[in-house]
Write a structure and sequence with these properties.
Length: about 170
Amino acid sequence: MQCLSLIRYEEGMEARHLISEREVDVGTRTGETSQLPKSVETHFSWIRTRMSAERTLEAWVRTAVSLIGFGFTIVQFFERLNTTAGFKPAKDPMLTQYVGLVLIGAGILGLLGAIWQYKTLVRYLHSDKFRDISQVSELPKSATLMIAVVLCFIGLFAFIAILTRAL
């Protein structure tokens, strides 16, 4: 049975010193009840850690988008520039493709490392060790993780496309 304490707030009290006056039963959305974590502070700390993992993955996704996009743009820009009338072709036209491939590869590798780190941390946070704190029985789906995986495939496609044109 899930119990929620009615909390009396007195001026000057910190959040961790809130005192419960009586317990009442509270049902969940499905009508089931479960036990609240022993410490609300600990539960919120767990949630903050879980959300920080999401933010870290989002930062890696932004970085990977920048690297992949910039690498692809460098290749496209100099390829178009070499075919424009009035410009001399570069001494080594393949150099820009290599730079682009390195940037795209760095974006893909960074994103793969971030996905691995994210999945490892989330698995750890949802392990039996934290079951009482998290109050979550299964791993939730993450939109950020799905976007990261799709971006890996897009980056891989760009890498292969440039590599096949370079050869």
